[in-house]
Amino acid sequence: MKRQEYQQQNNFNYALLLPIFLMLILSVWLQYWVAYYDQNDPTKQALKQLTFVLLGTALMFGVKYIKRDIIWKAVPWFYVFSLLLMGSLYFFYDPHMYELTNTKRWLDIFGFQFQPSEIAKTAYILFISKELVKYNKRVPEKDIHTDLDMVKKLALYSLPLFFLMFVQKDFGTSLVFICVLGALIVASGINWRIVAVLGGIATVLGGTLIFLVFTDFGQSILSSLHFKEYQLNRIRAWVNPFEYATSIAYQQVQGLLAIGSGGLFGTGTTGVQVYVPVRESDMIFTFVGEAYGFVGATAVILLYFYLFFQIFYTGIKSNSTFNIYICVGIVFMLVFQTFENIGASIGLLPLTGIPLPFLSQGGTALISTMLALGLIFGMDSKA
C-alpha cells in the first residue's frame, strides 16, 4: 500500500513534458538565429530567452506541488490581484514601451518589462472554472433560466477585465479572453439555445466590425471607440496585402514571401534571405517556414496539437470537473493564440500582435504559459 502511494506521489507526466521540452529548446534556437539575421547579438538574445525558459520551468515545477485545495481557495484572490495589476498600469506603466507603442500595457520591474494581461489569462481561467464548478454543485437540476442567470453572472464577473482591456487598447488579448469564456461556457453544458444566441451575437458583431472598417462612416465610429489607425490598417492590409506591399502591408507581404521561398524542405537555417519585420515575436513562424519549409512548419504545428491533446487527456484522466475546466480554458487559450499567430503569418487572418506560444520573444508570455502548465502537471487521479 505504501509503495502504491509512493508511486502516485512521484508519478510524473513525461508525455506532457516532451512537447513542452521540445518547444522550449526550439524557442532558444529560433531566437538565436533570428537575432543573427537581424544583425543583433545572437548569443545575448539566446541567453535572454534561455533565462525566461529557466524561470518559467522553475515556476512550472513550483506550481505543480501546490495542493489543490490551496489553489481552490486562492482563485478569487488571484483574479483580484491580476485585475489590480492591470489597473496599476494607468499610473505605473513603462514609459519606454509607451513611447514605442502608445499603449499602457507594460510595467517596468527592475528593468524587466512585465505585461499583467498575460498573468490575467491564467487567473481568469481559474476563476471562471471555479464559478462553473460551484454552479454545478449548487444547481444539480439545470434549465434554461438557471443557465441564463449563470451566464449573466459570468458576464458581470468578466466586466472589470474587459473594461481594463478596453482602456489598454489591447484588442488582440481581449479576443483570447472571449475565446476562453466561450469555450468554458460550452464545456460546462450550458443550454444550447443560449450558446447559439451568443454565437450569433459574436458573428454579427464580427461582421459589423469588418463592415465598419471599410466605410468612412464606420471608421469614424471606430475612431470614437478608441480604435487606432494602425488597428484599422491591419484589416486593410489583410484584405489587400499586395496593394499595400510597400506601406501598411509590408510585414504581411514579406512574411508570405519568406514562407513561400521555403518550399517543401526550406532553405536551411543558414540560407534565410527574406527580411521580415518583428520576426522575433509576431512573425516567428515565417522564419520556421522559410528555414525549414512546409515539412518543418507542419512538424511544429503537429507538436502543438500533441501538446493540446496531452493537456486534454491529463484533465480527463484526473477525474475532476475543476481540472477539466482548467484544461479546456488553457487549451483554448493556446489554440487561439497559435491559430491567430500562424494564421496571420500565412495571410489567413489579420495581424493582432498575439505572440506564438513558446516560440515568440517575450518573457511574460512564456512565464505565464509555464505557470498555466504547472497547474496541469499538478493534476492526478485524486485531485
Q: How would you describe the overall organization of this protein?
A:
With 383 residues, this protein is mainly alpha-helical. The chain folds into two domains: 29-190 and 240-377, no CATH class; 191-227. It contains 15 helices and two strands. Strands 1-2 form a two-stranded antiparallel sheet.
Average pLDDT works out at 87
State the end-to-end CA separation: 19 Å
Shape label: globular
Question: Low-confidence runs (pLDDT<50, min 5 residues)?
Answer: 4-8
Oligomer: single chain
Instruction: Count the beta strands.
Output: 2
Largest sheet: 2 strands, antiparallel
Query: With helices defined by DSSP (H or I, 4 residues minimum), what is the helix count?
Result: 15
- Secondary-structure element series: HHHHHEEHHHHHHHHHH
Side by side, the strands of the main sheet go: 1-2
SS-based structural class?
mainly alpha
Provide keyphrases for this structure.
383 residues, single chain, mainly alpha
What does the secondary structure layout of this molecule look like, with pairings?
Elements: H1 2-9, H2 14-37, H3 42-64, H4 68-92, H5 95-101, E1 107-109, E2 112-114, H6 116-138, H7 144-167, H8 171-187, H9 192-213, H10 216-224, H11 229-239, H12 250-262, H13 284-317, H14 321-345, H15 363-377
Antiparallel strand pairs: 1-2
Helix pairs in contact: 2-3, 2-13, 3-15, 4-6, 6-7, 6-8, 6-14, 6-15, 7-8, 8-14, 9-10, 12-13, 13-14, 14-15
